[in-house]
């Protein structure tokens, strides 16, 4: 038996560059992993096959679940016939734009490698990740990172934000497909790339530049349909965040704080307002 933690991510930036011929969008995004985790426990299943259980009864436990599919693809790729049991202890909210499903899938790929003492070549693991979904490869790379293409191309960012994060979940998911279908591309493709745009100290932009750095092309259209998300952003700013943004396609938002005590006070107050909130640290690995 083995247990592995699967972290959430936030999108510090998200630029939509173009609509692709395959129906996806070309994106560029600065992504930071953060210390909000699902826990995946893997054990051999004497009965054979794949059995998945989950602490969240709203999530499927069959092939519709990306963690289940990750086990299928790993067994197929590595020619393993041993059965596997998977238990997901969910903490990352589903449909929040925090990458929980993709992180779970990456954790299954890494965990099965450890459980069965199999070490696929790096490129083989990345191909498995790409078969599962655009964001899965991100969780096989160090953080922070820049993702491009559909999200499957990952490179080191070279800089990040040395902030404490408060993540707020408004209580409902937003469909990624819905968010992208409602977005209308109005910017000229190709005129934007992520770089080190501000003066930094040891690769970290100072707090007075945080607000200038954050942006999300999907945010305006999603907030129009879900004004409670804007309310969560305002609460974060009211309670002391230096900057706030929706993560990915939503529905979760995050705020940036300079110290842990202030972030924990804000998280407690937001929970008192009826929303789920966590104070978490960034992951630099």
Explained architecture:
The protein has 285 residues and is of the alpha+beta class. It folds into 2 domains: 2-156, Ribosomal Protein S5, domain 2 (2-Layer Sandwich); 164-280, 2-Layer Sandwich (Alpha-Beta Plaits). It is 29% helix and 28% strand. It has 8 helices and 12 strands. The strands form 2 sheets. Strands 1, 2, 3, 4, 5, 6, 7 and 9 form an 8-stranded mixed β-sheet that branches. A 4-stranded antiparallel β-sheet has the order 10-11-8-12, covered by helices on one side. Strand 10 (243-246) and strand 11 form a beta hairpin. The model is unreliable at 188-193 and 195-201 (pLDDT under 50).
SSE blueprint:
Blueprint: E1 2-11, E2 13-19, E3 25-45, E4 50-54, H1 66-78, E5 83-89, H2 100-115, H3 122-132, E6 145-149, E7 153-156, E8 164-169, H4 176-182, H5 210-213, E9 215-216, H6 219-225, H7 227-238, E10 243-246, E11 253-257, H8 260-272, E12 276-280
Parallel strand pairs: 2-9, 4-5
Antiparallel strand pairs: 1-3, 2-3, 3-5, 3-6, 6-7, 8-11, 8-12, 10-11
């Amino acid at each position: 038996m083995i247990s592995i933690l699967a972290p959430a991510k936030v999108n510090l930036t998200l630029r939509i560059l173009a609509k692709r011929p395959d129906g996806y969008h070309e994106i560029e995004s600065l992504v930071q992993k953060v210390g909000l985790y699902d826990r995946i426990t893997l054990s051999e299943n004497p009965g054979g096959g794949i059995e998945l259980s989950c602490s969240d009864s709203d999530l499927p436990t069959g092939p519709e679940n990306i963690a289940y599919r990750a086990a299928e693809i790993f067994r197929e790729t590595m020619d393993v016939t041993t059965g596997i049991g998977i238990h997901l202890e969910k903490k990352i909210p589903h449909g929040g734009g925090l990458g929980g499903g993709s992180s779970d899938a990456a954790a299954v790929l890494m965990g099965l490698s450890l459980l069965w003492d199999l070490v696929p070549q790096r490129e083989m693991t990345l191909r498995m990740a790409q078969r599962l979904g655009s964001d899965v490869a991100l969780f096989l790379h160090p953080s922070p990172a820049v993702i491009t293409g559909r999200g499957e191309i990952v490179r080191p960012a070279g800089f990040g934000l040395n902030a404490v994060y408060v993540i707020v979940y408004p209580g409902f998911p937003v469909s990624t497909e819905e968010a992208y279908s409602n977005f209308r591309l109005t910017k000229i493709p190709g005129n934007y790339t992520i770089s080190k745009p501000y003066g930094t100290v040891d690769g970290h932009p100072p707090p007075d530049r945080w607000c200038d750095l954050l942006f999300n092309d999907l945010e305006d259209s999603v907030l129009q349909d879900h004004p409670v998300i804007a309310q969560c952003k305002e609460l974060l700013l009211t309670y002391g965040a230096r900057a706030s943004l929706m993560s990915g396609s939503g529905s979760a938002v995050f705020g940036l704080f300079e110290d842990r005590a202030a972030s924990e006070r804000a998280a407690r107050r937001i929970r008192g307002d009826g929303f789920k909130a966590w104070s978490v640290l960034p992951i630099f690995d």
